[in-house]
Amino acid sequence: MDFDPVPLGRLQFAFTIIFHIIFPSFTIGLSAYIATLGAIWLRTGNDRYEQLMRFWTKIFAVSFGMGVVSGIVLSYQFGTNWSRFSVATGNVLGPLLGYEVLSAFFLEATFLGVLLFGFSRVPPWLYVLSAVVVAIGTAISAFWILSANSWMQTPTGFELKDGIAYPTDWIAIIFNPSFPYRFAHMLNAAYLTTGFVVLAVGARYLIAGRHIEEGCTMLRMAIGLTAILAPLQLVIGDQHGLNTLLHQPIKIAAMEAHWDGSKPADFHIFAWPDEHAGVNHFEISIPKAGSLILTHHMNGLFPGLNSVPASERPPVKIVFFSFRIMLAIGFFMIAAALLGAFLWWRGSLFETRWYLRVMAQCWWLGFVAVIAGWVVTESGRQPWIVYNMMRTADATSPVPGATIAGTLALFVLAYGVVFWFGIYYINRLIAQGPHGPAVEETGHFLRSSISAARDAGREALQKR
Amino acid sequence: MEWYLPPIWAGVIGTAVAMYVVLDGFDLGIGILFPFTRSEGERDQMMRSIAPFWDGNETWLVLGGAGLFVAFPRAYAVVMPAFYLPVIVMLLALVFRGIAFEFRTVSRSKKWWNVAFTIGSTLAGFAQGLILGGLIQGIPVRNGGYAGGSFHWATPFALLCGLALVAGYGLLGATWLAMKTEGPVAERARGQSKLFLLAVLAFMAAVSLWTPLMEERIAARWFSAPNFYFLWPVPLVTAMVAYAAWRWIGQRREVPPFLAAIALFLLGYLGLVISNFPYLVPPSLTVWDTAAAPASQIFMLLGTLLLLPIILGYVTFIYWLFRGKVREGESYH
């Protein structure tokens, strides 16, 4: 049987990179949260912050491990799956990735050792400093990776000779036109994602009536953070969109399923884009809202999909629907965070059980939004791998489709197992709570009654 | 200057690969030795001896891969497709052994994560050996791209190299345990050190005989005048180090056997470099054929000269911080 290597290679890479992005989205934010908890602990000397820091560090350990191993895979897949791309862009992208390894990867990996195993070996300030170093390392890592990705979207600072890019201006390469927007958008997304996980865990404890003090602290910190960052994300996203319109107008047209550029664009709440006929079916739209968002003018015009031949368009349905998923989650996050802040201000946050119930289920929101956003920007770049420079179809390795299909199946199987167990173990660590033992005692009944008794004791002591 | 850049970069990447092989070598070795333990407590103790270090150790592999992409993109673009299957098997093996550290701790039943750790560690080492062997044999290249099939690497020689590397990692792991642990684990590791040392010597001899017989250019490199007069100390020193290692293990010394194992690795590595330099992708592509643009190599070299000493500084700090022996019954967290 003959397999076409191009779509298979893309599918494999999409699968491994989507799996990978789940973990950085969480660990970039979580390491910053752990560092914050540590800093408060040092300032106030309050044990609760130490306990929370140690608790989240256990969860961090499990997720960081998965992020590391799935990240190593990617650094080799550029070569295994995209060898012609590697030759064409190695001069430019190689150093960006190299700087990531040298300035961030070693930093994270090494100081993680202190964070996980050094608590009894180093003074508290050094322990907290290690947490800060890990947090900074993850952000530096994001800096370089986002720079490399943004260069593929808006390549600058190079000249092309025989199909190979040669650097001419490193500052222009690193700080390429879309980089500041994409970096801000992703970093903020990572902090938001973590904020909603912490919010969900806090809400879960309050509903269950366990770890009340810790749950309240988590809720306050998470709502304080997300009430600022969620609206901020809307502003950053808007600016990012305007930047994309400037450099990749057809991506924007696909995000909005905007076909005819000679008329102002409606904003489609729902539509079924028909890529053969070049129209939408079943539109539910707000008239001219698309133009208002993208040109900040009711009758503003921007290019439609029909302005280029079908071979130059990205897959419209994927881009259009992923964008809507991200948008919906974004607006929900803003509403949830602001409502939480309102309830907090009214003094009824911890008693509003319906709100806590809903929030306890919302831990996954950020992850889905991040994945949807990446699908928008990566699919929206098609058919280019490096915008206006190299086509995805010209970038593959000389590897038979069957080999890629076989290894894709292996990846799905292996990552499926890893992911399932990872979620299961993280959930169990959360269920054990901040006072939970590192290793669970046998006997479910015994454990829950002991921890319930311990909680009750703590509550009683604290009330006294 | 432009002529010197590729050999300088070959030196940087060669160093990164050597660091990787030695550092991740001993912690992969722990996984290879995992099945020969008697209790969960012993396995906890073994894992504890490498837990703070393994993540940093594995980062050298990323540096090797990224470094090849940075400095020699054309070699990267030939080598990775050529070893598509072994590379992906190695990566998946590393996935399973990497997550086993944490998952094993939080899991109720450790059994399956012990298995994942053992198989992952062994398979990763074996796949790395296959890649090394395949590289020495040579890769068919046409128009700057890989021109072979998915199984071109699969030969008896590559298989031999795979086993050799597993034995070598086992030796590093066993001498590491003898140095870093106490009690029955350390005692058993001493016995294993001797066995693995013998195996490693046998494999080194086999590879040293096989390569010049297989490749004329390697025979010419070693046995033609005047090279021969400069190169004969390499096997001699190897033999002396091996003898010293055997004595030191017998005398129950703690640190010297581990250092001797590292020295053996580096000597073997030196032998391979002598056999193949300046070819990065034998038998056709040299370091100059595959080099990135000088502007890229210089830009990255500046960063490397600045950051690598800092990295070595804090890596040393971590090894110092977690100095001393891991006692019996000391568990993971």
By DSSP, the count of extended strands of chain B is: 4
Number of domains of chain B: 1
Uncertain runs of chain B are: none
Instruction: List the total number of helices of chain A.
Output: 14
Strand order of the largest sheet of chain A: 1-2
The helix-strand sequence of chain B is HHHHHHEEHHHHHHEEHH
Percent of sequence in beta strands of chain B: under 5%
Multimeric organization: heterodimer
Beta-strand percent range of chain A: 5-15%
Order of helices and strands of chain A: HHHHEEHHHHEEHHHHEEHH
**Largest sheet entry of chain A:** 2 strands, antiparallel
Mean pLDDT of chain A: 86
Which CATH class of chain B? Mainly Alpha
Shape of chain A: globular
| Class computed from helices, strands and strand pairing of chain A | mainly alpha
Polypeptide structure, described:
The complex is a heterodimer of chains A (464) and B (333). Chain A is mainly α and 464 residues long. Chain A has one domain (5-248, 321-433). Chain A is built from 14 helices and 6 strands. In chain A, the strands form 3 sheets. In chain A, strands 1-2 form a two-stranded antiparallel ribbon. The longest helix of chain A has 40 residues, at 5-44. Chain A is globular. The N and C termini of chain A lie far apart (75 Å). Residues 438-449 of chain A have low confidence and may be disordered. Chain B has helices at 5-33, 40-50, 54-71, 73-82, 84-106, 111-137, 156-180, 184-214, 216-223, 227-231, 233-250, 255-276, 287-290, 294-321; strands spanning 141-142, 145-146, 279-281, 285-286. In chain B, helix 1 runs antiparallel to helix 3, helix 1 runs antiparallel to helix 6 and helix 11 packs antiparallel against helix 12. In chain B, 53% of the residues are buried. The N and C termini of chain B lie far apart (50 Å). In chain B, a hairpin with a 3-residue loop joins strand 3 and strand 4 (285-286). In chain B, the strands form 2 sheets. In chain B, strands 1-2 form a two-stranded antiparallel sheet. In chain B, strands 3-4 form a two-stranded antiparallel ribbon. Chain B has one domain (5-321): Formate dehydrogenase/DMSO reductase fold (Up-down Bundle). Helix content of chain B is 78%, strand content 3%. With 333 residues, chain B is mainly alpha-helical.
